[in-house]
Amino acid sequence: MKTENQKAWFFVLPVLILVAFNALIPMMTVVNYSVQETFGDNLFFWEGLTWFENLLRSERFHAALGRQFLFTFLILIIEVPLGIAIAMSMPRKGIWVPFCLVIMALPMLIPWNVVGAMWNIFTLPDIGLMGYFLNHVLGISYDMTQNVFAAWVTIIIMDVWHWTSLVVLLSYAGLVSIPEAYYQAAKIDGASNFAVFRFIQLPKMKNVLTIAILLRFIDSFNIYTEPFVLTGGGPGNSTTLLSIDLVKIALGQFDLGPAAAMSLIYFAITLLVSWLFYTLMTKDDVRS
Amino acid sequence: MALELQNITKKVGGVTHIKPTNLVLESGHFNVLLGETGAGKTSLIKLMAGLDPIADGQLLMDGEDVTGQSTQKRNISLVHQFFVNYPHMTVFENIASPLKVTGMAKSEIEGRVEEAANILQLKPMLNRKPHELSGGQQQRCALARAIAKQSKAVFLDEPLANLDYKLREELREQLPELFAGRGAIVVYATSEPEEALLLGGKTALMQDGQVAQFGPTADIYRTPNSLMAAGIFSDPPINMAEFTKTGRMAHMGRNISWELSDERAGLKDGVYKLAIRPHHVLPYKTDAASVPIVGKVLVTELSGSESSAHFEADMANWVSLARGIHPYQVGENHQFFMDPNQCFIFALDGAPVGGDHHG
C-alpha cells in the first residue's frame, strides 16, 4: 500500500522561495519596466511593445550587437585553440605540475576592474611598458585612445590574457583523465601524433571543452568591467559592447523602459545561443 | 618466428626494475609470463612493445634488432587487462583502426574485420559503440583488433582479469584456438598458476623483476629448479620447511622423520629446504611412504568440493588442500600426511641441489 499526501511540496518550498527572490522577482521587475515609460516619482505609462520595436529597428543597437558578436567570436577563436595547445604542452606529472597550474590560475584571480586598469596603464603610450616600447623602441604608432584598431587589439589581448587560463585548466583536466593505456593502444596501432589528438584527446576533451566554450561565450558576451575601465567604449563608439551601451542607456540617459527591453533581448540572445550550442554539442551523447 | 630477449634490462631513476633477462619467445604456442602483481610482467611486456625504453640489452624480432625501434613501426598488438577501445568509434571502426593507419584498401579492411568479428562472435555488434557492449564483448572487441591486425607479436596482459568468472573460463578456452595457426608470437601475462597450466605452451616464472625459470609449462610445473620457481607456480602458496639429512634419514623438527629415496640419499648430509604443494599434504594416507605430521588446525576453508586447512606443526605453518569435505576442528590437533615423493628439495638459499630433478 502506498500512502499519498502532499507533504513533499514543503521540501521544495525553500528552493522555490530562493529562486523567486534571486531570479524571478528581479526578472519580472525588468519585464514590468520594459512595457512602460517612467519619469520618476513612481509614475508609469503603458507603452506595450514600443520599446522592443524601437530597439530592434535601432541602428545603434545593431551596431553594438555586431561589435559584441565580433568580440566574442574573436576571443573564442583565439582562446580555445590556444588553451588546448597550452594544456597539451603542460607536464602531466612531476614537480612542475603545481607550478604550472598556479601560474595558469593567476590571471583569473585578479579582480576584473584591476585587469582593466592594469592594461590601461600597461598600454599608455608615454609611460606604459607596452605602449612605450611599441611607440618609442619599435617605432610603431600605437595609442588605443585614438586608434580603433589598437583599441580592439588591446581589449582582445586583455581578454585572452585574462581568460585563456580557464580553457587551459578545463582542457588539462580532460587530458589528465585519459588513461595511459589509450596512448599505448594508439602507439601500437601505429597512430601519428595528429591521429592521437584527433581520435583520443579531442573526443575525451569534448565534454570539458563544451563547458569551457559555453562559459567563455556567456562571460565574454556579457563582458562589462574590463572594457569599461580600459577604453570606456571608445574611441568614439568603436568598443561600445552591448553591456556598455546598456548601462549608458539605463544610467546615462535614464531611459529605464528601453534599457529594460534591451536587457530582455540581450538575455534572450545569450540564452538562445547557449542553448543552441549546448544542444548541438551533446546531440550525439543523447542519441547513444 | 621468434622474439629474442638478450640481457634486457629496465632501470627507472637508477633503480633496476627488470634484471637482465634472456628469453626466446616463439610462435606456435602460448608464451605465458606467470608471476604475482608487481613481478614485472607488465614492465617486461612494455619493454618488448617498445613503450618503455630498454636500459641495456637487445631485442631481436626474427633475428632483426628492434631494440630502439619506435612502437609505431613495430608490427605488434597489445590487449590490456582493462578494456581499451576508442570510445567514440563503433566496433567496426575500432577493429579497423590499426589497419586504416597502414593505408590498406577498404575491401581488404572489411574482409579482415569481418573475419575477426566472426571468430569472436561480434558480427551483430559491429555498429555499436564500446559503451553499449558488456565487459566481455568489449574485451572481445579489443582481441578482435589484435587478430585483424595480424601482427607478428601479440601481447596479452592479463586480458581476462577483469571479466567475471564464467566469461573468463569461456574466453580462456577459446584463446589458444584464436591464435592457433596464425603464426604470431603470443605472450600472455597472468598471475594465476592455473591459467598458465590451462594455456600450456611455455611459461616464464617471474618474481621481483627477474625470470626464475623458463620452459615448457608442464615441465617446469613438475620440476621447478629453485625455491622461487616452486613458490611462484603454486596456488595456494607452497609449503616450505627445513629438514636435516643424516645418512638415509630426513629429520624435520623434533619428531618427524622419514627415509629418503635412493636418489636423494646420495646428497651430502646437512640442512635442506623442502617445498611441497598443498594438495600433496592430505588428511589421509595415500602411499605407504607418507609421512604423518600432527598439527594444530588454525583456519579452515571449504570451497564446495575442496577443503583446505592451515595448521601449525613444529613452529612451521602448513597448508593442506584436499578433495572432498573434511571436518576439521579449529584449535584441535589433526593428523596430516605428506607424500615425500612429491617434495621438491632445495639448498637453504633456495638454489637447486646437485642432480635433483624430482617430481
What does the model show?
Chain B: It holds the Pfam family ABC_tran. Chain B: Belongs to the ABC transporter superfamily. Chain B: Keywords: ATP-binding, Cell membrane, Membrane, Nucleotide-binding, Translocase, Transport. Chain B: GO terms for molecular function: ATP binding. Chain B: InterPro entries: AAA+_ATPase (IPR003593), ABC_transporter-like_ATP-bd (IPR003439), ABC_transpr_FbpC (IPR015853), ABC_transpr_MalK/UgpC-like (IPR047641), Mo/tungstate-bd_C_term_dom (IPR008995), NA-bd_OB-fold (IPR012340), P-loop_NTPase (IPR027417). The complex is a heterodimer of chains A (288) and B (359). Chain A has 288 residues and is mainly alpha-helical. Chain A has one domain: MetI-like (MetI-like fold, Orthogonal Bundle). Chain A is built from twelve helices and two strands, in the order αββααααααααααα. Chain A has a two-stranded antiparallel sheet. In chain A, a hairpin with a 5-residue loop joins β1 and β2. Chain A is flat and about 75 Å long. Chain B is α+β, with helices and mostly antiparallel strands and 359 residues long. Chain B has two domains: 2-232, Rossmann fold; 239-346, Beta Barrel (OB fold (Dihydrolipoamide Acetyltransferase, E2P)). Helices cover 24% and strands 35% of the residues of chain B. Chain B has nine helices and 20 strands. Chain B is elongated. The two termini of chain B are 32 Å apart. In chain B, 40% of the residues are buried. Classes of the chains: A mainly alpha (288), B alpha+beta (359). At the A-B interface, α8 and α9 of A face β6 and α2 of B.
